[in-house]
Automatic annotation (TrEMBL):
It comes from Sphaerisporangium aureirubrum. CDD domains: GT9_LPS_heptosyltransferase. Keywords: 2Fe-2S, Glycosyltransferase, Iron, Iron-sulfur, Metal-binding, Transferase. The lineage of its organism: Bacteria, Bacillati, Actinomycetota, Actinomycetes, Streptosporangiales. Residues 352-396 form the Iron-binding zinc finger CDGSH type domain. Residues 313-336 are annotated as: Disordered. The keyword rRNA-binding does not apply. This is Glycosyltransferase family 9 protein. SUPFAM superfamilies: UDP-Glycosyltransferase/glycogen phosphorylase. It holds the Pfam family zf-CDGSH. PANTHER family: LIPOPOLYSACCHARIDE 1,2-N-ACETYLGLUCOSAMINETRANSFERASE-RELATED, TETRAACYLDISACCHARIDE 4'-KINASE-RELATED.
């Protein structure tokens, strides 16, 4: 029997919610190395624990409680602003509680709830208020070994209908990828298998090669293997998008009711967020109007941009997981071959080859790969790289290729 003091951290949400709390959980691990850290979260997420390297075991909790533990040394509310989650942790009779203040629980204390930060920053800031440092950039998970690689994942589901792009449109994306020779995997949970089968059938009806339906047949550990080995993930604003960010897999993410800024801090040169700039009810019962403004051509343009960049990193484009610029293969690629610049219509410049980006004051910008998409609209939040802002702003290039643009 272990006699270490126990720290219980409550995060009773889904996969995306858990992954945005990884930096905070790692901060707790560093701050309390002698404690046994228990994560109160849904049991279905237990397969991610070995990749997180932050907690010792999981208590099966969905939502804000109750939390099945008595008298932990420390309880940490990483679930919400209260009062239900705060009261659930107080009922465990902790020696110390780390939580946000709430007028419904005046004796709990803590910093005031701030609705503005993204989820990653919010929980790191909470811990910082209590003197526990946590790095919001500490999101990455190690890529698990996989038996196959080089596929493209299309994940058509989401927790609420408001965040689900129509299956007919996903089918058009799947069909285009299949006709281009890509192996497509359709993923999802058990409740999303029927949706994935429908998307596959619609794509097949248009003459596309058959897409493989993995939805309902993978737990989170197997899903992490598939995402980590993929060339690209195409999905809505859901947990798989956060998994792609954590594993470093390029992604095209379709946002509807919520802004992309709410979720966290991906490496945006490898992730394109498509958003019409409109917000709405994330729990709505029909697809959000802003999400419906995103068309199939926009998604395919983003997909082709990232796949082309992936092929540039992989060197021979054979579908293997691309190497970073720190690897020997990438250095060979940079040493050989020409630089090519492709103009995406009313979109970014796609640059491939042995190039270096230098600022006006002579500093070198780490592009992180041998092919990048560079902003032309001037609105990107991560200049010089493209973050998809040209779509939300309606950017139109001032001229055609060959006319000096």
């Amino acid at each position: 029997m272990e006699h270490r003091p126990v720290l219980v951290a409550l995060r009773g949400l889904g996969m995306g919610g858990l992954l945005t709390a990884v930096p905070a959980l790692r901060g707790l691990r560093r701050a309390y190395p002698g404690h046994r850290i228990l994560l109160a979260a849904p049991a279905a997420l237990s397969g991610l624990l070995p990749l997180m390297d932050a907690v010792d075991a999981l208590l099966d909790v969905s939502g804000p409680g109750p939390v099945p533990y008595d008298r932990p040394d420390i309880a940490v509310n990483l679930h919400g602003g209260g009062p239900r989650s705060t009261l659930a942790l107080l009922r465990t009779r902790p020696g110390r509680l780390l939580t946000h203040a709430h007028p419904g629980v005046p004796h709990a204390g803590g910093p005031p709830w701030d609705p503005e930060p993204d989820e990653v920053t919010r929980w790191c800031a909470l811990l910082g208020w209590y003197g526990v440092p946590a790095d919001p950039a500490d999101l990455s998970l190690p890529v698990p070994p996989a038996t196959a690689a080089g596929h493209v994942i299309v994940h058509p589901g989401a927790a609420s209908p408001a965040r689900r792009w129509p299956p007919e449109r996903f089918a058009q994306v799947v069909a285009a990828l299949g006709r281009a020779g890509h192996r497509v995997l359709l993923t999802g949970g058990p409740a999303e298998r029927a949706l994935a089968l429908r998307v596959a059938a619609l794509a097949r009806a248009s003459g596309s090669p058959v897409a493989e339906v993995a939805a309902g047949r993978t737990d989170v550990a197997a899903l992490a293997e598939l995402v980590g080995a993929a060339r690209l993930v195409v999905c809505g604003d859901t947990g798989v998008a956060h998994l792609a960010t954590a594993l470093g897999t390029p992604s095209v993410v379709l946002f509807g009711p919520a802004s992309p800024a709410r979720g966290g801090r991906p490496r945006r040169d490898r992730h394109i967020a498509l958003w019409a700039g409109r917000t709405g009810d994330p729990h709505g019962l029909v697809p959000d109007p802003g999400l419906l403004e995103i068309g199939v051509p926009e998604v395919l343009e983003a997909v082709l941009t990232l796949l082309a960049a992936d092929a540039g990193r992989a060197g021979d484009g054979d579908g293997a997981r691309p190497e970073t610029r720190d690897g020997p293969g990438a250095r060979r690629e940079e040493a050989d071959g020409p630089v090519t610049v492709t103009l995406c219509e009313d979109g970014p410049l796609l640059v491939r080859g042995p190039f270096t980006i230098v600022t006006q004051d002579g500093r070198t910008v780490d592009q992180g790969r041998a092919a990048v998409a560079l902003c032309r609209c001037g609105r990107s939040a991560i200049k010089p790289f493209c973050d998809g802002s040209h779509k939300t702003t309606g950017f139109r290039a001032p001229g055609a290729p060959g006319e000096g643009t």
